[in-house]
Amino acid sequence: MLTEKWWEVAVVCPFALEDSVYWAFEQLGSKGTASQQKDDSRIVTAYFPQVQFGPSDFEQFEARLLDTTDASVQVSWKTIENEDWAKSWKTHWQPEAVGDRLLINPAWLTPPDTQRTILTLDPGSAFGTGAHATTQLCLKALEKQAITNATIADVGCGSGILSIVALLYGAKQIYAADVDPLAISSTHSNATLNGVSEAALQVELGSLPEVIAIAKQAGDLPVDGIVCNILSEIIVGLILPRLSELAGPKTWGILSGILTSKSAWVEEHLTAFGWQVVEIVHQDEWCAMTIRLADER
């Protein structure tokens, strides 16, 4: 039975804080997040089942948000009916070009005539829709890699966007994992929307150890490429100590979810674990790193 009512929570914030608000909503447990422009600001809107959340949750959310920023931020919330929740999603989303090759198209809209690769998404799902700067940084970095017939590991796959786009670009095999069961479900749904087979995109509940295990079982180590869009603290604390188990001399990696203010700290740990940064690209306050194993390994 569908949830009868939802909370619609809106945050008006400066452009630079948009992705931070996305992450904050995701950590709170949003079942979907969208954004739109309002004058010189962004309105980031998220949706929560009424049966699981109450006003006190959003009061605490507002207090935490105001504590972490000096900028002007306005937070409001209201209840909406289930059918209004579905309609609300559709008012927020239009086809969006990312980088030089990709077009993200909502599932309910006929794709425009384009030479771009089309990724079809239903943004009503519980996970990412490609709007995060961190996701877009990864998608743009993917365009620069040798993808055709590649075997790729996706650690912390979320909605499966990076895995699916890699396959649409010609990758042969993806091994993916996420710690959240909802992410696994979302990945399967998005794969089906884009005609991606379960054999080509193998996804497990877990993290790096599970990706290593399924790639090893398939005889696909080292992989050709690695994508990891996770917060920098997790990259440093949980991912880097074993990341080289996936890699060989020709393996490339793309790391995102890294605040620019923490990039030097992440690079220091990459060096300590035998990696070198080939390129760093920035969007808003976020950055993505393209990495390879250092030559002296």
From TrEMBL:
- List the protein's name: Ribosomal protein L11 methyltransferase
Record EC number: 2.1.1.-
* One of the GO BP terms on file: methylation
Gene3D superfamilies annotated for this entry?
A: Vaccinia Virus protein VP39
Q: Which reaction does it catalyse?
A: L-lysyl-[protein] + 3 S-adenosyl-L-methionine = N(6),N(6),N(6)-trimethyl-L-lysyl-[protein] + 3 S-adenosyl-L-homocysteine + 3 H(+)
Job description of the protein: Methylates ribosomal protein L11.
* Binding residues for S-adenosyl-L-methionine: T135, G156, D178, N229
- Which keywords fit this entry according to its UniProt record? Cytoplasm, Methyltransferase, Ribonucleoprotein, Ribosomal protein, S-adenosyl-L-methionine, Transferase
Q: Which GO terms describe its molecular function?
A: protein-lysine N-methyltransferase activity
Which organism encodes this protein? Leptolyngbya foveolarum
Q: Does the keyword Transcription apply?
A: no
Q: Name one GO cellular component term.
A: cytoplasm
Which major enzyme category is it? transferase
The record's family statement is:
Belongs to the methyltransferase superfamily. PrmA family.
Q: Where in the cell is it found?
A: Cytoplasm
Claim: Methyltransferase is one of the keywords in the record: yes
Pfam families hit by this protein: PrmA
